[in-house]
Amino acid sequence: MKKTLVIASHTYFEQSTATATILSKLAETSNVTVRNLDAIYSDYNIDASAEQQLLLDSDVVVFQFPMFWYSVPSLMKRWFDEVYAYGFAFGSTGDKLKGKKVILSVTTGGPEEGYSSDGYNGHSIYDFLLPLRQTMNLAQMEYAGLHISYSMNPMMEGKEEVLAKAEAHATNLITALQAI
Predict the structure, then answer these.
(1) Distance between CA atoms of 110 and 35, rounded to whole angstroms?
(2) Of the four listed, 89, 110, 130, 142, which is most buried by Cβ atoms within 10 Å?
(3) What share of the chain is helix, strand, coil (3-state, %, to 5)?
(4) Which helix (H) or strand (E) holds 178?
(5) What's the pTM value of the predicted model, to 2 decimals?
(6) What digits encode the pLDDT tens for the residues 17-46?
(7) Burial (CB count <10 Å: 0-12, 13-18, 19+), residue 58
């Protein structure tokens, strides 16, 4: 497996079931480095140069997060603001991420049918991920897929069911990483 960097965030990580389980399984995988932004940068003071070096040293980047108010969690957004800088990720000399594979690994609290034009969110999950996909395009990264698990809220679905789905999500993601 190629060297993989997982950038993860969850606004309420200490209460997380799905994200914590997915990260735990990924951390046990060889050639995978997991960066839990909430544990590293709880003060939101991001070391952009260290993060950029980790990106440079990796072949594949996975962004793991729960859909939070139709976007990434705030710390992950801050990470993008600081790390994907002009001259690094974009701009006339910003080609440092060119050709790196990127996978989006997303969980939602709501059911799949909620993420459709007929659902209560009024849009597909792909619509909500468009700004993130465009960010990857601007950075000249190669999109390698979306791994999504719906209904991952243990208060609504039951903790055991969410744990089982999170383990399956992680297993599928690891299989995809091994195929790259």
Answers:
(1) 25
(2) 89
(3) 45, 20, 35
(4) helix 159-179
(5) 0.95
(6) 899 999 999 999 999 999 999 999 999 999
(7) buried
